Amino acid sequence: MGTMLLVALAAVVTATVVMVSVRAGRHEAQAEKARLAEEAQRQARRSLEAVWAMGDREFEEYIAQLCRRDGCTEVKRVGGSGDLGADVIGRLPDGRKIVIQAKHYAKHRTVGSRDIQTFNGTARAEHGADVPVFVASCVFTKPAREFAARQHLTLIDVNLLGFWNNGTTLTSFLDLDIGRSGTNRKLHPDHD
User: Cα–chain-centroid distance for residue 21?
Assistant: First the structure.
């Protein structure tokens, strides 16, 4: 009887140690996942300092390079006077034509609905875009995001641009629900 009690007590102690270890492991894994997500966001923001230091044409070429990296073909930077809202044109890996408007603004600015409406009026009609994309080095206003969602335009704001810069593929952004995501809060000029 004493041996059975000792075995039962050992089993309870062992089970308790295992449960505590499993819980600690889960907590540690969750903490590590949160830490990695925060670090990825900080790294994306740090890498954007170079983007904010670019000139407008350099920013357009940077966007074209990201498209090429992600398997787009026939990519050309076409921005300039009279571009009718197309700064980069190319083909997605699946062959669809992509037209990109690139706005290189200071990080504390926003892109409003008027700019999105203008781009919407030319991307498909003038340039034959299958996939119109508006990329900005800042954030979009809420009305701009809502309009873009209704018109099936893809918006890549400064936050998504950071992830694109760090390896997330362009095609990952094409089906995001931009009407419900993102932020329209301006960043402080010297925000980290």
Answer: 36
